[in-house]
Amino acid sequence: MREDKMEINNSQKFYTKMIFRYLYSVGLGDWWYQHEDRSDSHRKLYCLWAVISNAYIFLNICNELLANFRKDLTDVEKNDAIQFSFAHPLIFAKIASFFFNRKKIREVFGRLLEENRSVYSCGELEKESMKQIKRYSLAFIGVSYMTLVMSTIDGLRAHFKEGIPIRTEVTYYPSPSNSGVIVNILRFLVEFHWWYIVSVMVAIDSLAVASFVFVTFKFKLLQRYFKDMGLTVRRDQSNMTDEALADKFRRDFIVGVKLHENALWCAENVQKAFGWVYSVQVFETVALLVMCLVKLVTTNHNMIFLLANFAFMLCVIILNGSYMMPAGDVTYEASEVPTSIFLCGWELVRQTDLRFLVVVAIQRSQVPVIMKAFGIMTLSYSNFIAVLRFSYSFFAVLY
């Protein structure tokens, strides 16, 4: 019942809590900002599960890296082994980044979802932000699992055509020559591993992109506040004395300044909390696009292989775009705040000291809000294209 009320009253909080719950279920710990009491036996069992879950991810990635030292790899397996040697450690880097920044992430979402909500809110903007987040999340899920399905179909094709075990990942053990009940169980765990880590990756990516959208929502809300303030000043001008109007303007404007400072704090600390995730995503995009292009020119083609490879490339491109686009939205909406402050109705208030306050607020709002990867690369609409061009240029230099 409480969850239903949360979904109605604060859909952003409901959505984010679902992601944190999923990350908790896969062994990354409970980092939701609201504490939940659990029994000692639950905590001990969960600790055991967290060790097993993370060891499963880590050891299988090590198994994939060791596969590069196998002497019996075919050309296709060599290409796949190199590709997974980049892809899966980078996914693990995202997981590690989330874990090491978990306390900052908890603090950031506490401020994003709760701070100033009772001061000023807008249900229309909140619904708009949730629609945007759902679109990104569905895009993550759709392209990620489409890639997995196409790769599995390619493995089935090789199984029926060449008589080898079904394979999506290339590992040191078990190899195609190994057989037996235990080996088949291990082989299933190996194949399941890719699906498992992708589900964790999608959850972390959704959380990172949600933080962008929530910050954008903060700046849109701020614009709405100052524009509403201007309408209020114009409405009250004929009904209030100059002194009363100035006092009301001062109180309302100070609230707006506090809302702005909170939005700036959220933007700065979202960058601190997820900065490494952004960096990993950009590096992952370049590395994997180059690897996919290399596979296209070095591997014998068939329709299933081409579909699987293009699905992988599409997945990487959409993941990268889903970071760059909402990050660009943050920068754009923050740049619109000075105009909104200018329209707050200051010209109708006679006290000159309030005009000085407005000038200072406008100057403060003109500082660009920029999200970055590696601390230097701006996440923006134009750089989304730049990353794709750089990937192709790097491939062209190699071949």
TrEMBL record:
<keyword id="KW-1003">Cell membrane</keyword>
<protein>
    <recommendedName>
        <fullName>Odorant receptor</fullName>
    </recommendedName>
</protein>
<keyword id="KW-0472">Membrane</keyword>
<feature type="transmembrane region" description="Helical">
    <location>
        <begin position="136"/>
        <end position="153"/>
    </location>
</feature>
<dbReference type="GO" id="GO:0007165">
    <property type="term" value="P:signal transduction"/>
</dbReference>
<dbReference type="GO" id="GO:0005886">
    <property type="term" value="C:plasma membrane"/>
</dbReference>
<dbReference type="InterPro" id="IPR004117">
    <property type="entry name" value="7tm6_olfct_rcpt"/>
</dbReference>
<dbReference type="GO" id="GO:0004984">
    <property type="term" value="F:olfactory receptor activity"/>
</dbReference>
<keyword id="KW-0812">Transmembrane</keyword>
<keyword id="KW-0675">Receptor</keyword>
<keyword id="KW-1133">Transmembrane helix</keyword>
<feature type="transmembrane region" description="Helical">
    <location>
        <begin position="303"/>
        <end position="323"/>
    </location>
</feature>
<keyword id="KW-0716">Sensory transduction</keyword>
<dbReference type="Pfam" id="PF02949">
    <property type="entry name" value="7tm_6"/>
</dbReference>
<keyword id="KW-0552">Olfaction</keyword>
<feature type="transmembrane region" description="Helical">
    <location>
        <begin position="194"/>
        <end position="217"/>
    </location>
</feature>
<comment type="similarity">
    <text>Belongs to the insect chemoreceptor superfamily. Heteromeric odorant receptor channel (TC 1.A.69) family.</text>
</comment>
<keyword id="KW-0807">Transducer</keyword>
<dbReference type="GO" id="GO:0005549">
    <property type="term" value="F:odorant binding"/>
</dbReference>
<feature type="transmembrane region" description="Helical">
    <location>
        <begin position="45"/>
        <end position="61"/>
    </location>
</feature>
<feature type="transmembrane region" description="Helical">
    <location>
        <begin position="373"/>
        <end position="395"/>
    </location>
</feature>
<feature type="transmembrane region" description="Helical">
    <location>
        <begin position="81"/>
        <end position="101"/>
    </location>
</feature>
